[in-house]
Design a protein that fits this description.
352 residues, mainly beta, Porin, 2 domains, eight-stranded antiparallel barrel, 22 strands, elongated
């Protein structure tokens, strides 16, 4: 049977073994090893175009593997998970094993005893249709039966038991702080440089193979509450698994920043609005706090070089009587935009 409460590799290696990582062109794996040797290939198992035919069996491996084994496809999706026992010259599967397609859809689930398929197996095709049956050599005799308990496998997938949907995307909320604010500036204002140095944004991305695409919305603020920036646009990203818990994440976004300003001078106030393009780029890491939640830490740069905009502005001040006291319209030159760089922190939630 699988070892440990959540059936991962790193925290369940038996005594006398250590965690190792192997990388090949087909993906990567984490396993428990008693020797210094590293794996040259990963167990792919037999494959079949549709469920109900050939069993998907983990391959025997060189000796020295003992304990849980987890592998991932090149795109970061789970590929296989199970347990090996060391017999000296070779290591053979023993216990519950599961395989997945690169899309995240399950491929097979079944029990092995000292390398031999035993009991009821479940196979899925790429559309998620499941069949069950008992093994006969390398084939599956289709019949109704109950496959092994998959509670630990479900936890590894980050799902509750009985839910089979793969990860289809993610949702991220984050805060960004940069020393060079993006905003609107005018030297005659009481606050001539109210740099909007803090931003909050939310992104929902849908997975399309290794790429994630989706909308982004945000809010940029400064210490001066007279200035606000409202952001809306689209984002694209790509993630790459570095370890079982750590992913490298790079993303870009192109948005519009709608800046609202309450201009203030000694002779009154005026409400102004500006629209500017806001490209965003960031690269960072996402650390798994649980199968469903990651903490995100990234370096980020956004904005464009500031541009000058002329506006005709009328300043008004509150009057004691019913008549509002306003100046004659004045042509002002405002500096809009700017480039900001800094750090972003947030939380990312897997969508299934």
């Amino acid at each position: 049977m699988l070892l440990g409460a959540c059936a991962t590799t790193a925290n369940t290696c038996p005594l006398g073994t250590r965690i190792e990582t192997a990388r090949t062109t087909t993906g990567r794996a984490e396993y428990c090893r008693t020797t210094e040797d590293r794996l040259a290939s990963l167990p792919s198992g037999r494959t079949t175009a549709s469920a109900g035919g050939m069993l998907i069996e983990p391959t025997a491996m060189p000796g020295g593997l003992s304990g849980p084994f987890t592998s991932w496809h090149a795109n970061g999706a789970l590929a296989s998970h199970g347990t090996y026992v060391d017999e000296g010259a070779r290591s053979i599967p023993d216990g519950v094993w599961a395989f997945w397609y690169p899309t995240g859809q399950r491929k097979s689930l079944g029990m092995y005893r000292r390398g031999v398929a035993d009991g009821c197996f479940a196979l899925w095709d790429e559309q998620g249709e499941r069949v069950t049956g008992h093994p006969a050599g390398t084939q599956l005799n289709v019949e109704s039966c109950a496959p092994p308990d998959d509670g630990e496998i479900a936890i590894l997938e980050g799902r509750t038991r009985g839910t089979l949907g793969p990860v289809i995307g993610d949702a991220t909320i984050q805060a960004f702080v940069g020393p060079n604010g993006v905003g609107a500036r005018q030297p005659d204002q009481l606050d001539p440089d109210p740099r909007m140095q803090v931003a909050f944004d939310a992104t929902v991305r849908r997975r399309f193979g290794p790429v994630l695409l989706g909308p982004i919305v945000g809010l940029r603020v400064s210490s001066n509450f007279d200035y606000r920036g409202y952001t809306i646009g689209g984002a694209a990203g790509i993630t790459h698994a570095l370890t079982r818990r750590l992913d490298l994440d790079a993303s870009v976004a192109l948005a519009l920043d709608y800046v609202t300003v309450t201009a203030r001078r000694s002779d009154g106030t005026a409400d102004l609005r500006f629209v500017t393009a806001l490209p965003v780029a960031q690269v960072g890491i996402a650390f798994a706090l649980s199968p469903l939640i990651h903490a995100v830490l990234a370096a980020r740069v956004d904005g464009l070089p500031a541009r000058e905009v002329e506006r005709s502005v009328t300043y008004c001040r509150d009057a004691v009587g019913p008549i509002l006291q306003c100046t004659t319209p004045q042509l002002e030159t405002w500096s809009i935009g700017g480039i900001s760089f800094g750090a972003a922190v947030g939380l990312r939630f897997a969508l299934r």
